[in-house]
Input
Amino acid sequence: MRKREFWLLVGSQCLYGDDVLKTVSERAEEMTEKMNGSGMLPYPMVYKGTAKSNEEISRVVREANYDEHCAGVITWCHTFSPSKMWINGLALLQKPYCHLATQYNREIPNEEIDMDFMNLNQAAHGDREHGFIGARLRLPRKVIAGYWSDVSVLDKLGSWMKAAVGVAVSRELKVMRFGDNMREVAVTEGDKVEAQIKLGWQVNTWAVGDLVKEMDAVTEDEIDALMTEYTAEYDIATENVEAIRYQAREEIAMKRMLDREGCKAFTNTFQDLYGMEQLPGLASQHLMSRGYGYGGEGDWKVAAMTAIMKAMGENGNGASAFMEDYTYHLEEGRMYSLGAHMLEVCPSLARTRPRIETHHLGIGMNEKDPARLVFEGKEGAAIVVSLVDMGGRMRLICQDIECVKPIMEMPNLPVARVMWKPAPNLLEGVECWITAGGAHHTVLSYDVTAEQMRDFANMMEIEFVHITKDTTKEVLEEKLLLADLAWRLR
Ligand code: MN
Output
């Protein structure tokens, strides 16, 4: 995984003399060291100096743009820092931008405070000047206010860093499509050129026949090695070892092609498996557990979002997964959505040790019963996210959900299953989701937050719709109407 870091640029000016600038610099070093030492920032912050002139700021921004490790720029104004000297630099900035409105001292020192103190510690004043130019330039930015060593501030900054890493992953993401989208489906389609312009995704197709050729080249020794991994991570609950070995062959071949092309996400479709005996089930699930994004039925948007959200999560591979709303339980007072897929649910969602099972799969071109992981999803707060192409723009829809232990055993359901209650409640939640045009495919995540998705959408300059416990259909309809007008004008 690429090393990522964030650059801190502290605003000041030459008006106050060298002593003040020396103090600003020492304090910025101290704050950087302590914030990094807090253990609360998921990525290191690097102090890149005190900004005192247009030339200096422009130079640091140019360096940030070209530095492959720099995932974002954080600014703070220790003293007043006149913003006209920031215009040229900020106008060039291509990396995520966070304005941290803080100050070195927590309290006003009653005895010590005089005009020198005021001039040195005027973030309250300097950060407003700095905020104006961000607003005037219409820059996508995150504003975080609070004392720099407070847990709440470090938490917000750390959360934003993860969203910014999602942006970095997005901008270099390659998606491998094995075949095209499922025939006649609308929501999995979209403008791949627009997606590359806005989100950076390189989405291209490879022939299923090339994958079959790669599968033929996989050796029995390689399959043995992967079988050892499967056995360590999962319970084998089938006599059909050949089906598992076939999935291992598919996984090794797919991984080889993905890695050769630098792709972190892939799609396939049950309608295009020519030369393959089984739709990849276990194979796709195990690849997802290793951080690869996946989308069924050729859904490249959800494949890409899965890879990005996995990378935004804990340790760069969180509990995020390709998901599909399948069916509802509509009993009064106990209403739930049941999520699953034909085969491919990522085991990062599992509350129990997954079992490898083989079952008949009637849909598609499967000649033989595909092996797949079967498990129940975890309980807990989560989100589901869907990216749809509205024609001329992308809309990211995020809904808060509460996952529960599935309320029944469903012993004849041959796939992994997750059960949840969407916000504000199932029926209104479904009404809101359908009103916004959300897909049946989503990314379900336990550790990426709605705020991080909002930050991501903000940085990518795409539309964001959030369905929460407070959302009503009436208000949502108005918001969508206004957003539609605003986005047409942009
Ligand atoms: Mn599907």
Remarks:
- DSSP finds 15 helices and 19 strands in the chain.
- The chain has two domains: 5-171, 174-489.
